[in-house]
Design a protein that fits this description.
Distance between the termini: 84 Å
Radius of gyration: 27 Å
Largest sheet: 4 strands, mixed
Number of strands: 4
Number of helices: 8
Strand content: 5-15%
Strand order of the largest sheet: 1-4-2-3
Order of helices and strands: HHHEHHEHEHEH
């Protein structure tokens, strides 16, 4: 019988040994091992609060860099720090929303990993006949049972990275929406296995439907169409693509300006 402080590996080793030697004898026997395996799994994992704190700190660091220090301006042509200050309450609300969502996702992933592990063990254990067996190779069995827990730290890191990408994309979109962006230029982030549809969008300019410039008849959608017709940067898992948002007529491609838009742009230039 493993000690109360045994690691998950030690506990699953003892459990597999017992069922291999004695077989499945009763539900009480199985339930006892499931309780011990659950406790050992929870002991082995990084404490949930510690992991949530790491994600919270990472999101806060992004917020301070992009909002407090004005990093968002690099993704927005034709706007300024005053606009960031004006929409700051919404940006901060997104920090709180994303932090809560990330914490909930961590909890769900952990529950799923532990429950999957216990189901694998129960499925295997109940298949061993009373009296045990001499034909089972224990190491492959233990590896299969532990698979979900072993991969959990990797999946948790992916969740943290992905939540950071989504948070950054959402901050930028909030500034685009509330700051009056008229279009966005898609940028494909380098990756070893890029999504073909994202690569095909590289450098294309997508219009913001219903923008102030469109309502005044100063611009039209270009060949790429509208931003709401495609997935957003960061929307898909581990997408690191981004927009450079355009807020002024002068930043638009010529083919997206109407005659009225060209006249307005010429008037502004003369007055400058």
């Amino acid at each position: 019988m493993p000690l109360p402080t045994a690691t998950f590996f030690e506990t699953v080793t003892a459990a597999v040994a017992e069922f291999t030697e004695r077989g499945f004898e009763s539900q009480e026997q199985l339930d006892g091992w499931l309780r011990r395996l659950r406790a050992a799994a929870e002991r082995d994992l990084i404490p949930e609060r510690e992991l949530e704190a790491r994600v919270r700190d990472a999101l806060r660091s992004i917020y301070e860099r992009m909002v407090e220090r004005g990093g968002l301006l690099k993704r927005h042509l034709g706007t300024d720090q005053f606009t960031i200050a004006r929409v700051k309450p919404r940006l901060h609300a997104e920090l709180s929303r994303r932090t809560m969502a990330s914490a909930q996702l961590i909890k769900l992933n952990r529950v799923e990993a532990i429950e999957t592990t216990l189901r694998r063990f129960a499925g295997w254990a109940t298949s061993v006949p009373p009296g045990g067996t001499d034909v089972i190779e224990r190491n492959p069995v233990k590896s299969e049972i532990r698979r979900s827990l072993v991969s959990l730290p990797f999946r948790e890191r992916r969740v943290a990275i992905d939540q950071g990408h989504k948070f950054l994309a959402n901050l930028s979109e909030i500034l685009a929406t509330d700051g009056g962006a008229v279009a966005g230029v898609w940028h494909q982030h380098y990756t070893r296995n890029p999504r073909p549809e994202h690569t095909a969008r590289e450098g294309k300019v997508y219009a913001v439907r219903g923008s102030w410039a469109m309502e005044r008849g100063l611009m039209r959608a270009g060949p790429a169409g509208y931003a709401d017709e495609i997935t957003k940067p960061g929307e898909e898992i581990l997408c690191r693509c981004s927009y450079t948002w355009l807020h002024a007529l002068r930043n638009l491609p010529a083919e997206m300006l109407t005659q009225r838009g060209r006249d307005e742009l010429a008037r502004v230039r003369r007055a400058a």
